[in-house]
TrEMBL record, chain A:
InterPro entries: AAA+_ATPase (IPR003593), ABC_transporter-like_ATP-bd (IPR003439), ABC_transporter-like_CS (IPR017871), ABC_transporter_ATP-bind (IPR050166), P-loop_NTPase (IPR027417). Keywords: ATP-binding, Nucleotide-binding, Transport. This is ABC transporter ATP-binding protein. The keyword Transport applies. SMART domains: AAA. It holds the Pfam family ABC_tran. Signal peptide: none annotated. Residues 9-239 form the ABC transporter domain. The keyword Transport applies. It comes from Hydrogenoanaerobacterium saccharovorans. GO terms for molecular function: ATP binding.
Amino acid sequence: MSDERKTQVLVDGVRRTFQISGSELVVLDRIDLDIKEGEFISIVGASGCGKSTLLKLIVGLDHPTSGQIKVGERVVTEPSLDCGIIFQEARLYPWLTVWKNVEFGITRKLGAAERRELIQQHIDLVGLHGFENALPKQLSGGMQQRVSIARALVNRPDVLLLDEPFGALDALTRINMQREVLRIWEAEKKTMILVTHDIDEAIYLSDRIVVLSSRPGRVHDIINVDLPRPRERSGEEFIRIRTKIHEYFFQNAIGGSELAE
Amino acid sequence: MEKNKAMLAGNRAYQLFLAVIAPLTVLLIWALGSNLGLIRASILPSPQRVLSTLISLCTSGQMAEDLSISMLRVLRGFGLGAVCGIIIGSLMGFSKTANKVLGSLVSILRPVPMLAWVPLFILWLGIGESSKTAVIFIGSFWSVLLNTIHGIQSTDPKLLEVAYILKKSKWETITSVYLPSALPSVFTGLRLGMGSAWTCVVGAEMIAASSGIGYMISYARELAQPAKVFAGIIVIGAIGLLIDQVLLRLQRVLLKWSYVDEK
């Protein structure tokens, strides 16, 4: 790994527990991650391994029981504009047009012209030129998710978190969107952290894949994917990595019964 | 395309047919019964009589005068009820404490029928305009209040989370998330409130008034003029329908986004 790169997100000894009817449930335990600037990281794990909780901690919607998370130099205590997030549902405002939805993503004070330019630029970036005046309901699921990506990026965050963003899309749209995200990542050079249960998706996109075990969620392994992009899903190395991750879940029994292929 | 249009038009005609079949049947039976002498005119005058009475009421200007008096009362009472309903409803929708404090009061007062307030208001406010305004106010207030509370409380927490992550101020979250999201429900409340305001004005005028459409009906009854009573009832129904349609159209224009078909 090119370790000279600046650390963008640092997860330091994070533990998150929940009180459930008197007893303590450890969801995440001893999580240490050093994510570099511009890196694409995926976090895979079975349902309930705490991978979405980890994203919530990074974005500042939830707080670690112990340990610390830093985005850049900032210790995360609440959401901040340097860190955007995309959810499984596009979460668009149904009363706003595509343009206005993307505009809602801008919280900084900007001049009107700069604002307009920024919005148009991001609508173009996600390939929705010509749909500026459409309402979310008039768009397909994939297109809605594109709007939500534009809205998250228009604030120019340093880090983009993706919480199973394509889980609700059909298989073909999903592959299409993976290509799109790859293109956007290459164009924008953002640090991206993707939570997914789709192993192929993780291998297709990431520099490194963090494999979480379940209950408590711990880092089981971190796999480097040193393949040139765009990656061939049927390539030898691709399949080797896929087999390796499969083995983690299905043979080493780290709790992968609900993991999708 | 042409075929589609023809089918659409055919479908529309069919829908219209379904909508008017029941009233037309009633009218037909009524006309037959009256004209064959099966129904006594002192109880139920013939449709022609009602129509000619209606026309003469309209041309003489009496109808317009009574209607405009009633309308003015409705606007006054409804305006007050809507404003108070939206303000107090917003307060109760946003603040859990306000909701707890006022909630019990609402549940006690709301089931009281509008007309039960009339004697009290006459006692307090006299027989003039203010007692009628008060009755209409009560009549329109509840549905606006409840629908405003509901609209605000049912704002999607996921959309609120997005605003929170985007660091929107409290004020911007209210104006750009809560408010638009509550609007369809508020509008439903306004429509229901307007409907009940119209019902209330007629009720209030029948009990204590010397003008207005409700008074016209009850006075006609005293003078044993059933055709006039009927003409009044028809106008009340027609106006009620008209008001609701106008508000519905307005809602469709203002809240276009909520009527867009899912793809």
